[in-house]
Specification:
Elements (H helix, E strand, L loop, with lengths): L1 H18 L15 H7 L2 E11 L10 E13 L5 E7 L14 E8 L5 E2 L7 E2 L4 H7 L38 E4 L2 E2 L7 E3 L2 E5 L9 E7 L4 E6 L4 E5 L2 E4 L10 E3 L2 E5 H7 L3 E5 L4 E5 L4
Parallel strand pairs: 7-18
Antiparallel strand pairs: 1-2, 1-4, 2-3, 4-5, 4-6, 7-8, 9-10, 10-16, 11-12, 12-13, 13-14, 15-16, 17-18
Length: 290
């Protein structure tokens, strides 16, 4: 008899266990970061008052979802309307957050693969009265449905390129002269033409605003010209190379010990416009448009 009763009790115990709601895995998470970092991680952040909490009709697991309805007053991140619904697990054992109807909260959450807005215990979600730090860091936010203000990029004034002081005109063979921004350029060595390319002494390149000649390398037969923008031109007997830019150009030449460089290549490399006035045989160099 006793054995029969023991067997019945064991069966009843097992049957009771089968009927009990199944416990989901226990909640395990890291403490939330600061307000700014947490907002970066989450997909929506808002504040609002709970108007309704809808629990599952039948609890199968502590992880079953509870629907929490809000009247929203401020949005910091996400597409949140004036009324919204979030989901949270039924129990804190599975990282569910306990909300109360009529209580205002700041809410941090993510969107599941199914498109559900989910809030869990391991976030900075908290009653609004306890969110002083969050409100200070996050700022004013926007009303539900409004677009956040677009920050205009700072306006940067372009540098003013001052033309060189007017000096006597240097005349090349064939009567060619060089003008910069309408002013004649004085050269101690006259320009020259070779194979249709007009050359000027390398030092003439410094007439362009922001340009500096770094020197001539006799071993590699190259001259390096640097612009204040960071552009570096290296012209050598084997052909020109340009840092971060590809341009076709003639090579420098040496005439009577003076290094001569192609004026069009130098000017266009720094964004200047090169023109030719056939009537006056003038090479016209104009600075970039402001």
């Amino acid at each position: 008899m006793k054995k029969w009763m023991s067997a019945c009790m064991a069966v009843a115990f097992v049957f009771t266990l089968l009927l009990m709601p199944q416990q989901a895995d226990a909640c395990s998470c890291m403490p939330p970061s600061g307000p700014a970092e947490e907002m970066e991680k989450k997909e929506f952040v808002f504040s609002g008052t709970v108007t309704e909490i809808v629990e599952p009709a039948e609890i199968q697991s502590s992880g079953d979802p509870v629907a929490v309805h809000f009247d929203v007053d401020t949005v910091w991140k996400g597409e949140i309307g004036a009324q919204t619904e979030v989901s949270t697990p039924f129990s804190s054992a599975t990282c569910g957050f306990y909300f109360e109807v009529g209580q205002a909260y700041i809410v941090y959450g993510s969107v599941t693969e199914e498109g559900t807005q989910q809030v869990v215990l391991c976030s900075r979600t908290a009653p609004l009265e306890q969110a002083t730090e969050d409100l200070s860091v996050l700022g004013e936010g926007v009303k539900p449905g409004e677009e956040p203000p677009v920050e205009e990029p700072p306006v940067t004034e372009p540098p003013v390129v001052q033309p060189p002081v007017a000096q006597p005109t240097a005349v090349a063979n064939g009567g060619i002269s060089i003008h910069i921004n309408g002013q004649p350029l004085a050269l101690d060595v006259a320009p020259m033409i070779s194979n249709g390319v007009t050359y000027v002494p390398v030092r003439a390149a410094e007439a362009f605003a922001g340009v500096q000649i770094e020197g001539w390398d006799s071993q590699t037969k190259s001259v390096t010209i640097r612009h204040e923008s960071g552009l570096v031109l290296t012209l050598r007997a084997g052909g020109p190379t340009v840092q971060d830019q590809s341009l076709a150009a003639g090579e420098p030449v040496i005439v009577d010990g003076r290094v001569m460089v192609p004026v069009r290549f130098i000017a266009e490399s720094f964004g200047w416009t090169v023109g030719w006035d056939a009537a006056t045989k003038t090479v016209k160099l104009d600075s970039p448009a402001q």
